[in-house]
Design a protein that fits this description.
single chain; 49% helix; elongated; mainly alpha; 6 helices; 159 residues
Length: 159
Amino acid sequence: MPDDSISSWSDLENLFKEQYGDNNNAGFMLNEFNNIKKNPNESAFDFNVRFQKGMHKLFQVMKLNEDVCLTTYFNDFDSKMAYQLRDKDPKTLRDAYKVATNIENNRKASRKLGRRDDPNLFNPKNNNKREGDKTPIGKKLEEPTIGQSVGIAKKEESH
């Protein structure tokens, strides 16, 4: 850079922004948008609001296809949630927001009902019987004999 090429703070600021960019630079904003992630304790609703703010901020300097935004949205969740979202196959961001909120609400309801993934449930190593069932899992039940129907025994006649 030649001597005396910067004559004011404004010139220095402009040259610095040209060289390194600023937070209103399209590349910087795109990178920031692509690195949004849902925080572990953040609700899907709160994340949706934060995602939309980031997307609208980016739209001030560039336009993106909704499919690109949808793919970014899926990738912003943990792998389990992302899989469940993709499995529901939402076609729009609005649908994806609703699906994510519904999945989260269903998870919360399941926890409250105590229906979480239980490693002892249907695990033959830990529990060979279903609750309330006297027959071990995998043991063949006896077939009813002639004259005997299921649940009703044949009465013997007295002579």
